[in-house]
Amino acid sequence: MFKKIMVAIDGSQSSFNALNTAIDLAKRFEAKLYLVSVVNTANLPMNVGVSYAPGLVRDLENGARDDLEKAKETVKKAGLLCNVKLLNGEPRNELTRFPQENKIDLIVMGKTGNSGLARILVGSVTRYVSERSQTNVLIVD
Fold first, then answer.
1. What span, in angstroms and rounded, lies between the C-alpha atoms of 77 and 24?
2. Can you list the GO cellular component terms from the UniProt entry (predicted)?
3. Which string of DSSP letters, residue by residue, matches 48-93?
């Protein structure tokens, strides 16, 4: 039924609950797992036309990579392989675009996530994706 399952990872407990559910589904359906994190570069702070982006984006990307690495280790311990993707942009848009472009069959997301200054995957993102994605979405508490 599901051949490709994408999990949105933001480091929150909810996203790791979603990961555990996705692992179970991937085993059941012998599906490929895709771990995706989005650094929100669409809403970076500006001060008098000067962006704080260079150092801020790097720090946020490093944090996202750490989250993805932790998720990848969880998948590995479960005896599965996964594809890992770090995206930059507006999370709502990226999490609806990526599944469509990669022919994902199921998106698994946490009900709520971490919110930060420039990298967020919060309940409003989950809601947006669930309402606008052309891919099935499973929301995990």
1. 13
2. cytoplasm
3. TTEE-HHHHHHHHHHHHHHHHHHHHHHHHHTT--EEEEEEEE-HHH
Residue 47 pairs with which residues in a beta bridge? 50
Structural domain for 119, as ranges:
4-140
* pTM of the model as a whole: 0.88
Number of domains in the chain: 1
CATH code of the domain in which 35 resides: 3.40.50.620
Residue 27 and residue 78 in contact, taking contact as beta carbons nearer than 8 Å: yes
100-125: pLDDT as tens digits: 999 999 999 998 765 543 334 445 89
